[in-house]
C-alpha cells in the first residue's frame, strides 16, 4: 500500500446506489474492462456527465449500501479503469464488496459518511486529501475530517496480493 | 449452542466447525454463468491460464443463456459463441442454450439443485434457490474463475435473521405482497450481509413458486440468501427431480431448535393488502389502492421472481374476471420463466386466451430486467413489472416502474391504469 497522500475532487452520491446507476445493464455484453470506464454513472440522475468530466485521482464518495443490486463486476471495473483510486462510502453491498476485494480495488468504510452527505458536510467538487494507509480523509474545502476503516481478515490478505487470482497464485507458489 | 442452516451448510461445504464471522473456503457444488457475465469469465480464465487451463470439474459447471435468447445483437451473439466453444473444449455438457429460459429456474427443474448445495452464478438473484435450501449466490466473474481453478470459494459465515409468516392471504393478495411488505418495512439494507430463514404456516403451506418469490428479493434488502427447507409436496417434487438424497439433506441441515438468530420478525399475512414498490426504489412501498388510477403504458409479467405457472395462472384469473381483454392503451407482455412453464401454459389453454386478449406472450428469458431486450421503455413511460428492481431508467432511460404481483399487474393491464386486483376479482 502506497504511503502517498492522494488528492482529488469529491463526487458525492447518496445511499443505496444500485449497480444499474453505476454501470447500466445496457452495457453488460462488454467484456473488455478498459471499455467499461466510459459508461460510469451514465444513468445516475444529475451525474450523467461523470465519465466525461472526472479526472483520474478524483474520489467517489457515497452513503450506505453502495453498489447494491447486480453481481456485475463491470461496476467495479468501470471506476477502477476511469482512475478513481478508492471508493469512500459508509459501507458496501456484499457482492460489490467481494468484486472490489477480488480486484484489489481499495474501499474504505467511512463512519458517518451517510449522515455527513445528508447534512451537506461533503459536496461535489470538494477537494479531498486521502491517506489510504492511515485511513484519514481530509475535506480541505470544508475543513472537516473523516476516518475510514480498511478491510480486515482474509479480505486484507487478498487485497495485499492484489486480488483473488493473484492471491491464489501466491498460495500455490508457497506449496 | 445450536447452529443455523447457513452454518450447517458451510460446515458441510468446508469440512470444519464454523462460527459466525469466520472466513471459510467452501467446496462448490455447481459454478454457473449466464450469457451475461459468462463470456467475461471465459476470457478471464483463458488469460489467467494462458489458454492452457482445464476447469477443476466440467461436471460441476453450467451455462444458461437468458439475457438475449435468441440473441438480437451481434455482440451478445458472439458472447454466446465464446461460451459454446469453451464448453466444447472443456467437456462441459450443461449448456442450456437459447431454448431453455431463466438460469436458476432451468437448473432447478433439471435436478441440479439440492438443499445444502453451494451454487455460484453471475446473477444476483441466484440466491432465490434458497427456496429449496441451497446456498446459492450471485458473484462476479473473478469469483467464478477462481472456482473453475480451485473448485472452492471464500465466504464469510453470516448472522441469520428469522422471519415467521402466519395466516392465509386474503383474496387478491399473494406471496408477492408479503415480499413487498418485507422490502418496505425492512428497507434496502434491512438484511445487510445476513442469511434469512423463513418459517410459519404461510410458508409451510406454500407452493414452490411462492417460496421462490419470497426468496427472490433478499438481494434487494442486501441479504445473502433466504433459506426455506423443502417440505411436503415441494420436497416430493424436488426428490423426483434431484434424487432422494435430498430427503437426508433436509434432515442433516435443518436449523437446530436453539440456533442463534440476530433478529426475529413476524408477519400475520391475513392483514396484508396488495402492495407496490413505487418508482424509483424497491423499498418505496405503498398500497396499490393508494396509487390506483395512475395511467401506465406497459405491463410486463414474468421474471425469476414471478414467472412460474402459478404466477401466470394468477394473472390469467384476473384477466378472465376482467373479460379476457387488456386495455388497448397498455402494452401487455407475459414472459414465462422456462420452456417447461411455457408448455404448461399452452396445455392449460392460456396462450390462446392471452393472444385473443391482446397480450404479447414471449419465449422464456430474463428480458424484462434490461433495456436491451423486448419491453425496453421509452423516456417518460410508466410501467408495471413483476420483476425485482425498479431503479430509475433500469429498462430504459427516463422511464419509471412499479413492481407488483402478477394479479395486480394484470388488473392494471385490463383497466389501463394502476388497479387493485380486488376491484376486478370481486
Automatic annotation (TrEMBL), chain B:
Keyword check for Iron: yes
Gene Ontology BP terms: L-leucine biosynthetic process
GO molecular function terms listed in the Swiss-Prot or TrEMBL record: 3-isopropylmalate dehydratase activity; 4 iron, 4 sulfur cluster binding; metal ion binding
Keyword annotations of the record: 4Fe-4S, Iron, Iron-sulfur, Lyase, Metal-binding
Keyword flag Metal-binding: yes
One Pfam match: Aconitase
Boundaries of every Aconitase/3-isopropylmalate dehydratase large subunit alpha/beta/alpha domain copy: 28-416
InterPro entries, per database record: Acnase/IPM_dHydase_lsu_aba_1/3, Acoase/IPM_deHydtase_lsu_aba, Aconitase_4Fe-4S_dom, HAcnase/IPMdehydase_lsu_prok, Homoacnase/IPMdehydase_lsu, IPM_dehydratase_rel_enz
PANTHER family the record matches: HOMOACONITASE, MITOCHONDRIAL, HOMOACONITASE, MITOCHONDRIAL-RELATED
Protein name: Homoaconitate hydratase family protein
Organism: Aminomonas paucivorans DSM 12260
